[in-house]
Amino acid sequence: MRYLLALWICKVTTWLLRAMHRGATALPGKLALSVCPDILARLASQFTVYVVTGTNGKTTTGLLMSSILEQQGVRYISNKSGSNLERGIVACFAEGVKVSGRSKGATHAVIECDEAAFAKVAGKLNPAVVVVTNFFKDQLDRYGQVTATLNLVKTGAAKAVNATLVLNADDPLCASIGRDLPNNAIYYGMDNSNGNIVDSSHSENEAGYCLYCHSKMDYAYNTYGHLGSYACNQCGYSRPTPQVEMTEYSLTMESATFSYRVDQENYNCSINMSGLFNIYNAMGAIGMGLAIGAAPDHINHALSKSQPGFGRMETVHFGNKAIRTILVKNSMGLNQVINYLISVNQSMTLCFAVNDHISDGEDISWLWDVNLECLSSIKDNLSAIYTCGIRGADMAVRLKYAGLDTDVVYDNSLDGEGSIPIVVQRALEQMEEGGTLVVLPSYSAMLAVRSFLQEKIDMKEFWN
Ligand SMILES: [Zn+2]
User: Is pLDDT of 143 > 60?
Assistant: First the structure.
C-alpha cells in the first residue's frame, strides 16, 4: 500500500508541476522516497535494467545504448532528460508504470546514473548490464579524489551481482572494477600500437601510479589523459585484453568513422558525432550491445542512425551558418574538445559560455588545468573567440594567458548570465557566411544556450 501511495504522490506532483509549467524537478521522486523508501527496487523489478555511469560520456553512451535497443525492437524507458540521482531515477520509473503499479508496456530501462548515486541504487536496480565509461577529476573533486569516486562505483557494482560489467580497458581505474569483482566483464578499448591517435591537447596523465601498489606505471601508448595501454612492473596489474577494440578511425567536423575488432572479425561503424571521446562512448555502447547478444552489424546500423543529444555536439543551422554546442564540464572534457577542434582543422568561430552555479561547479579554477595554449596551433582557423556568462571575464583572462588575447572578444558592458544569448547572437551575426560557430558552455550556460536556440528555431518556424 505504501508503494502505491508513494507512486500516486509521485505521479500527481509530476502532473501538477507540469500543469504549472515547471520542468522536471527533484520533488516528485523525493516525496515518493520519503513515503516508500524501497519504491525504486519495487518499480525496477519489472524491468530489465541497463545502467551507464562514470565521469564523462554518460549521456551520449546512454543515448547510443537506447538506439541499439530501438533497433532490436525493445520497448524501453530512460531518464535521458531527467536527473541521474536516485529521486530522478524513481520519477523515470514512476512515469513508466500505470497507477496500478504495473508497467505501461516497456520491458527494459536505460538508466544514466551519477557515480555517487550508483553506490546507493545499484542493488535496488539489479541491473543486467552496467557500462562504466571512465574516471577523471571532475570540477568538484579536483583535489585528486578520483579514487573516492571509483570506490563508490565499485561499492555499487558489488551490489549489482547479476550484472555483466562493460568496462573501459584503457582506463586503469575503470578496468580495476573487473579485476576486483567476480562479475562477467566485457572490456572495450583502442589499439594505438601504430600511433595513429594523437592527443593534440597533451592532456596530462592523472593516474600514472598503480592503484594496487602505487608504483609508477609504464605506458606502451596513451590515447588521452591516463587512458592507454598500461602495465605495472611491480605487481603485474595491466590493461586487460579488450574483447571490443578499435583499430582505426577518422574524424570530420560532424561525424566519426572507425573500425573495431571482435573475435578476430573487423567491423566498420559511423556515428553522427565527432571526437575521439565519442568513439569511446560508442565502444561502451557496442560492449553493451554484445552483452545482450545483439549482432555487430545490427549494432553498427543502430549507431549510424542515432543523433547527438542536446549540447552534446548537436548542430543547429540558421541559413548557411551552423551552431554546434558542446557541453564542457571538467578539464579533461575540455581538453578532449580542444583535441577534436585541432584534429578537424577547419575554420570556425568559438564562444565560451562559463557560469559558476552549483550545477557548473562553483570553483572554475579547473580552467587553468586545461591546455588552452594548444589552440594557438590552429589560430589561423579561428575567426574570433567570444567569451560570456557569469565568468566570461575570467575566461577572457585565461585565454589571454594562453596567448590568444588578440582574437578574444569580451564585452565588459555585458555582464552575467544575460550576456549569453546576446553574445551568441552577435557571434552568429558577425561570422562569415557558411561558417560554424562552436559554443562551449558549462552546464547551466548550456541551458541558456538551449533556450536561446529554441526561441530562434520557433521564430524561424513562425516566419516559415
Ligand atoms: Zn602495481
Answer: no
